[in-house]
Amino acid sequence: MAAAAIAAKAAINRKIAKQKKADLEAALAAGLDPEEEFMKRVMARMKAEKELKVTKWQDPEKWSGCPKDYLKFSNKMQAIAEGDSFNLFIIGVIIAAGIVVGFQSYSYNDRVFFCKNVMPARLTRCTDATGM
Q: Average pLDDT, stretch 56-73?
């Protein structure tokens, strides 16, 4: 049973490879560059993914008054929130927060350690018992 499924899958793969080879030969015969056509399809797909997907409830032209203004604003905010630059900004903030937490976990940032070991003795404000 499993051998039959494997054989069927291999036959399908051979058929797909044969079709791709025929398509490539046809494109070359027509004078088209298959790599260029592939890149055009990829770029078109990327452009389609970048476009804001608006449902029928998000279309401002179907509304009037305050809901229309709200939908225009919310669609702009959706575009910002789904954009790459916003995502990179949020990732940067998360990394910066992790770095700050890492610095705070060391004893160098402890006030007692700082006053005893780093500040000179002539500054009494740091070593004064009331200053802590």
A: 88
> C-alpha distances in angstroms, 6 versus 9, 15, 19, 76?
5, 14, 20, 50
- Per-domain residue ranges of the chain: 1-51
Return the amino acid letter for 22: A
Residue 49: C-alpha distances to residues 38, 44, 45, 115 (Å): 17, 9, 6, 56
Q: How far is CA 111 from CA 84, 100, 107, 128, 131, in A?
A: 40, 16, 9, 12, 10
Q: Which two tokens stand for residue 9?
A: 């899958």
Query: What tens digit of pLDDT does each residue of 97-132 get?
Result: 999 888 877 766 666 666 666 665 556 565 555 544
- pLDDT value of residue 114: 64
